[in-house]
Amino acid sequence: MKNMVEIRWHGRGGQGAKTAALLFADSAMSAGKFIQAFPEYGPERMGAPVQSFDRLSNEPITLHCGITSPDIVAVLDPTLMATVDVTAGLSDGGVIIINTASSPAEMRKEMGLSGKKIFTIDASGISKETLGRDIPNTPMLGALVKVSGLLEIENVLEDTKKKLEKKFRTKPELIEGNILAIKRAYEEVKGE
Amino acid sequence: MRKKLAITGNEAVAYAMKQINPDVVAAYPITPATEIVQIFSQYVADGEVNTEFVAVESEHSAMSATIGASAAGSRAMTATSSQGLALMFEMLYIASALRLPIVMPEVNRSLSAPINIHADHSDTMGARDCGWLQIYCENSQEAYDSLIQAVRIAEESLLPIMVTIDGFIISHAMEAVDTFDNKEVQNFIGKYKPAHPLLDIKHPITIGAIDFNDYYFEHKRSQIEAMNNVEPVILKINEEFKKSFGRGYGLFEEYMMQDAETAIVVIGSTAGTAKVAVDNLRKQGKKVGLLRLRVFRPFPAEKLSKALSHLKAVAVLDRSTGMNAYAGPVCTEVASSLYTHSDLPASQQAGKKPKILNYIYGLGGRDIFVEDIQKVYVDLENVAKGEKTEKLINYIGVRE
Hints:
The structure holds 2 protein chains of 2 kinds. Chain A is α/β, with parallel strands linked by helices.
């Protein structure tokens, strides 16, 4: 791990971009990393483009400014790419993970991207199968764990389970569905 | 049990409030401090605290009810931000002049108009002369720790205190916070023994009596003296805190100041970003330092100016504006202190005062980056070399 890794999540209000960033940071903290996770706050509306961020480091993080040149970008909704420049500030060797049923090669062609590493995962499809609805944030988390290689999947599953048990005290079926979604995305994410 | 939690600034503040377990909280939610009140009311509903929670209809009422509760003899708290603090303005002076040790987390946010919910320090800087103690925190950990210290500081000095965090930047950002056991916190703050509780009917007193030209001035003078006496109280309680919990904070934090020739003075979360700028420049061999002012009231004029007077040039970063004041509020006070205090003997002071620059930044949440701060150090280096300063007041990140 380079000294600090910065991640930017793109989503739409209601898709759980903020929760994904928080869950990832929480797991990273349990793994002994120093962490920050924060949403970009603006006028929030269901469906409007939103961003959230993670910083992970092996040393204490004192930075309190926004993230403008992320190492990894995670896109929860591929339709965002028509209006939002999701690759803004992403370096040539940077990584982009997209929630789509298309292959990385198809996405590279569609986006006209060269030089960056592209990963795709059908997070919405997995979510529909495991949770019965399209909440792509937890499968995207699984894909990020695989692609970033920063955390151990077993630890992430364990931590996330604990966190979800608190959040969904009255809906235990969501806990299992989410855990399965993370696991499947971890296994199914493809890259080039 | 001590626990490391991944929580936001607001969660850290609410958690500290839970462990403080005040007798009364009267509060009205306002962005970005809403979560503090919301999470705390959940603690009340879940029976995790013994607090009497008063849901009021405005911040003016929140402060009024908190004043009433504190005067009655209870440990009383509230929380607010921005317009909420502005609406409390009238009552803030009453809380301090009645010498009520109210503790209030404040989430720094800009003031309307234009309407904006993001961080700057206009709100609490507007309340800087109302007789409240003010501690500005860099991060969630410090907010958690400071709030626990604040209970003791307020109760020992009989003065109200606000502990601030930057809106969204800290209030909504998740970081790791080392928290203490409930019992440890309770042991540290101790049982509250109010000095003159209204409900002590064996010793009846009058609170808020009229006080014309015969005694008003004397009462104000003694209130000023109370403020003058707080500095050692803050330092003493910090030492005790260090002993109990292994970390602490002074009136201000000096970062790489030992051999620094130029330095930035800043408060709040930007200090963390500035530390990275200092690290970068130190790697290039530049003798730069940072002084993060933490306690703004009481203003540690003498200690602060001694820490700065050996420098060639100082830049003070203000996240609020004095409009047409001499400079931003922090700069105005730093410059004034340097005019009257120095660590040099009087005979050697002539011409030795550091040159001062003021930078207004971050109004309404405008972000400030490491590169922005590094540019300030370049300006300082030029000024230190004797190059002419164009202006006292400069702006970072604004389109002109």
